[in-house]
Design brief:
InterPro entries: WLM_dom. The protein has 341 residues and is α/β, with parallel strands linked by helices. It has nine helices and eleven strands.
Length: 341
């Protein structure tokens, strides 16, 4: 007796946007969101943990681990699906590129430092130099598994070198172990989006630099104001009156010391207004205590825990202090030599 013919698998058609291209996919009607993520990860040769879907109008942003829910029960004919994912080979290319850029930056910075020593070694404010080596962000790292990590690094470095931020950190003696970005997929609910976190009184500060769909960056003036808020958590964990008084004081100091932009203008088209509201975006809940922060990223930063972060910060702090002391000795030696001629 012949085997019965198996039933034909019922399929459905969906369109998925990925890197400005539209992928037409015929999928089984009973496929789950979890299985779709696996199919898509295989298609672009990426780890499924690096895959996200932005499904509008709902359920919104989905990331690993994905729900074991039927895809076709979760969407309608009007649903739009945008896929986000970085192939493994591209992650390695980005890591290699970041290493090359870091090498070039180090060489360029060293050359500039030599030039600055020759030009300003007598007139430098050495107390300010030593304070900036101590009261600063001792490590800056983007989330390298997200697109364009070097752009995020430049954003973080711009914040760390902001004249107003630097002046306020020196005044209040703020020392932060690690300044990094927050994954937009985290700390997000339908009601609010957390813009920043301060872990353990300044060990780590996270800032939500990117837009929710990963395709852009948030306004600098909002993120700088968020950083003022998070720096206040170095002193006060809870949102009490002392916390808010300190936050307002830091915001005022940052504005007044922003000499590059006349104390008001931040960059072309961006103005800082202490009265700006955050709408439905919560700056944070309060200073985060305890637990473990893990930084996913490039070689040398993969899986850094709290102790490793603090150890790196301590080494960086000592190195900066050592460099500042050496510069001061060289400057004093140069000044003494020139005075005998």
């Amino acid at each position: 007796m012949e085997d019965p013919t198996p039933d034909a698998v019922e399929t459905g058609h969906v369109k998925v946007t990925y890197q400005n291209e539209i992928l037409d996919m015929d999928l089984p009607k009973d496929i789950t969101l979890q299985e779709l993520a696996g199919e898509f990860a295989d298609m672009i040769q990426a780890d499924v943990e690096r895959v996200s879907f932005f499904i509008t109008p709902k359920p919104g942003l989905l990331k690993y681990p994905f729900p074991d829910q039927s895809l076709f029960d979760a969407i309608t004919p009007k649903t739009r699906i945008k896929a986000i994912g970085t192939p493994t080979k591209d992650v390695q290319k980005l890591n290699d590129m970041a290493d090359r850029i870091a090498t070039r930056r180090a060489a360029r910075d060293q050359a500039r430092q030599v030039g600055r020593k020759r030009q300003h070694h007598v007139n430098r404010d050495w107390k300010k130099v030593q304070e900036e080596a101590t009261y600063t962000f001792h490590a800056i790292e983007p989330l390298s598994y997200l697109p364009n990590p070097e752009k995020s690094r430049r954003y973080l470095e711009r914040l760390a070198s902001d004249p107003g931020i630097k002046a306020s950190m020196r005044k209040h003696k703020f020392s932060v172990g690690l300044l990094t970005e927050m994954n937009p997929a985290e700390h997000t609910t339908h009601e609010s989006k957390t813009l920043g976190l301060n872990r353990n009184g300044g060990e780590v500060i996270e800032l939500r630099l990117r837009t929710d769909s990963y395709d852009g960056y948030r306004d600098y003036k909002v993120i700088r104001k968020t950083l003022c808020h998070e720096l206040s958590h170095n002193v006060h964990s809870e949102h009490n009156r002392n916390f808010w008084d300190l936050t307002k004081q830091i915001e005022k100091e940052v504005e007044q010391n922003d000499h590059m932009h006349g104390g008001h203008k931040l960059s072309q088209g961006e103005f800082y207004n202490p009265g700006d509201e955050f709408d439905d975006e919560a700056v944070d809940d309060h200073g985060w205590q305890g637990g473990e922060f893990v930084l996913g990223g490039t070689a040398g930063t993969q899986g850094l825990g709290r102790r490793e972060i603090m150890a790196r910060a301590a080494m960086s702090r000592m190195e900066k202090q050592k460099n500042a002391d050496e510069e001061q000795r060289e400057a004093q030696s140069g000044a003494g030599t020139s005075g005998t001629n």
